[in-house]
Amino acid sequence: MTHVLLRHRDIPDLNKFEVYKKNGGFDAFKKAVTKMQPAEVTDVVKNSGLRGRGGAGFPTGMKWSFIDNKNWPHYVVANADESEPGTFKDREIMESNPFQFLEGLALASYAVGATVAYIYLRGEFWQLAAFLDEKIAEMEKAGCLGSNLFGTEYSLKIFTHLGAGAYICGEETALLESLEGKRGQPRVRPPFPPSFGLYGKPTIINNVETFTNVPMILANGADWYKSMGTADSAGVKIFSLSGRVRKPGNYELPFGTTFRQLIYEHGGGIQEGRPVKAIMPAGASSSLIVVDDKVLDTILDYATVRTLGADLGSASVIVLDDTVNIDWVVKKTIHFFKHESCGKCTPCREGNYWMKNLTERIHSGEGAKADVDLLLNVAKQMQGKCLCALGEFSTMAVVTGIERFPQDFKKVVKA
Amino acid sequence: MSLEKTYPKEVKQILSKYPPEQKRSAVMPLLFLAQREEGYINKASMQDIAKMLNITETEVASIVGFYSLYHDEKAGKYRMQICTDLPCALRGADEFIQNLCENLGIKVGETTPDGIVTLEAVTCLAACDKAPMFQTQGPDGIKYHENMTLDKTLELIEALKQTKKEVK
User: Fold this and answer.
1) Residue A388 scores a pLDDT above 90
2) Which residues of A61-93 are buried (b: 16+ CB within 10 A; e: fewer)?
3) What average pLDDT score do residues A240-265 get?
4) ipTM entry
5) Where does residue A59 rank: exposed (0-12), middle (13-18), buried (19+ CB within 10 A)?
6) Which residues of A touch B142 (CB under 8 A)?
7) For chain A, what percent of residues have pLDDT higher than 70?
């Protein structure tokens, strides 16, 4: 198939400026700046049905239309803090198709009237930030970024900013705090960033993959984009497939692809031909899905995955086979969340501390059934009480693991 | 020695990214700069940055403490940070780190006797399909090493030892 986002897999050297330009690069941005009103750009994105790819799936055009036009300046921020265990798609986009991402960021900036945009990259993407700086400089040299673009009044500058190792900074208000030079701890919302964002100014934040869709939507039209995917979830998605599959990696597929197609046709099936036991469709933040034939034939889109008692999130599909005991999976996810809890709200900070102690005791074989009950109790007490999604997500694998795989816990506790 | 004196070009370039009235935003890139030479940030650097950005030293220290890529203690010249989160562990990361520890004769968190490598177990590095994997954090920045084996890692450590004299 021809890719919409991972176009470098069809076009060699797409991360070189001339190659990107020759393949229609920056035509959409030029057309928007010279021939379209900003609101028209937002309308096209709205009509395309594009939803945010960072995990929440919020309609992108609608988010852009929320920008407060009574308060200036406006900012656009790209969330390149990719840190969810199981997610590794944004890095491939930025390394191999960087200009399409940057053009999307530029289009969003024009649409909401921002003249400065930031790319917040996780600190580990040190080399990638330097690479993007080069690409930004090439765009400036070619007149695709800078002052009075394409002979108009519109000017735009893009800057990279490195985080320094904190999963929480993927949460948009924590990201803004971090970008302002503070500890990355989420803000109380509302107000939301489109009215109160970076430096207190109206700000639009989207995921790297979301922006990367935009130039293609502008070039080919909203109807073209909507013709792919499902009624609920338009277009294509990059599925980061990991775990016990033979061929882990990124697969760009239309929404509506089934788990079976993703795992067997694209991922090459399970190592040693073993059966799939469980799937986590949204990385470590995911609920655990008990897998049977019916689940494997379920399509992947935001609404349908929800009918399985899970969320699609950023589509980081972790596949577990029958050699994996779920109490170990839960221990691993809690180790992650305990480390990454920012400490601002009590349920998450204390809850994860206790869940870590309990999952370790249970996994060591020293636990009793009462410890499993207590673990479930702690997780349920946290739900609905945390300041941001991190705390809520930390309970997902715990609750669904214990409730949907009770035998795995029974097996490891003392009688 | 202040950062402005040691790295005048870099400091200027960093400050130019943010609105002049929002220069606090520069604290994170300046901390990376302060950490470049010795691999950790000392009290004098924190005071220097606080003064430059007109914030308190405590505020700077709170940033150092919050983010895991900043260090306030000396370690090996290179920190070898191995991801052991769920997707990597499903591809053998736990066995990998155990074998490496046995081979180097050190535990996670410890440094090789020659002071070249400190082994650390870290959370997700967004390379789940290429485990076992780790990053090295050292004087030349942060680099990814993917689809690693024990042999490839030991070779890399040998190569890092050779760079000892070249990079000051």
Assistant:
1) yes
2) bebbbebbeeeeebbbbbbbbbbbbbbbbbbbb
3) 98
4) 0.95
5) middle
6) 123-124, 126-127
7) 100
Q: Which residue of B has its CA nearest to A88?
A: B126
| B76: closest CA of chain A, how far (Å) | 18
pTM of the model as a whole: 0.96
Mutation test of the interface with chain A: which of B123, B143, B146, choosing the one with the most A Cβ atoms within 10 A?
Answer: B123
Residues of B with a Cβ under 8 Å from any A Cβ are 17, 19, 22, 24-29, 31-32, 53, 55, 59, 62-63, 66-70, 85-87, 89-91, 122-129, 135, 141-144
Tell me how far apart the alpha carbons of residues A404 and A339 are, in angstroms, rounded to a whole number.
25
Query: Is residue A113's pLDDT more than 70?
Result: yes
Tell me if B86 and A244 make a contact (CB, 8 A cut-off): no
On whether both A181 and A89 belong to a single domain, the answer is yes
Domain range spanning residue A126?
7-226
Substitution target from A82, A124, A270 for chain B, most B beta carbons within 10 A: A124
Q: Specify which residues A117 forms β-bridges with.
A: A76, A158
Å from B118 to nearest chain A CA? 17
| Domain B78-162 in CATH 3.30.1780.10 | no
Q: Where are the domains of chain B?
A: 3-66, 78-162
CATH of the domain at A274: 3.10.20.600
- pLDDT-based confidence at A415, cuts 50/70/90? confident
* CATH class of the region B3-66: mainly alpha
Backbone φ and ψ for B134, nearest 5 degrees, come out as -155, 170
Q: What is the pLDDT of residues A290-320, one digit of tens each?
A: 999 999 999 999 999 999 999 999 999 999 9
Domain finish residue from A321, A356, A384: A321
- Taking the C-alpha atoms of residue B4 and residue A415, their distance in angstroms, rounded to an integer, is 65
Specify the DSSP class assigned to residue A144. Answer: S
CB-CB under 8 Å, B125 with A161? no
Q: How far is CA B161 from the centre of its chain?
A: 17
How far is the C-alpha of A359 from the C-alpha of A409, rounded, in Å? 10
Is the domain of A315 the same as that of A336? no
Distance in angstroms (rounded) separating the CA atoms of residues A344 and A340: 11
Q: What is the pLDDT of residues B100-133, one digit of tens each?
A: 999 999 999 999 999 999 999 999 999 999 999 9
Mean pLDDT of A352-370: 97
Question: Please, what is the average pLDDT of chain B?
Answer: 94
Distance CA A32, CA A180 (A): 30
SS3 of chain B: helix, strand, coil, percent, to 5: 50, 15, 40
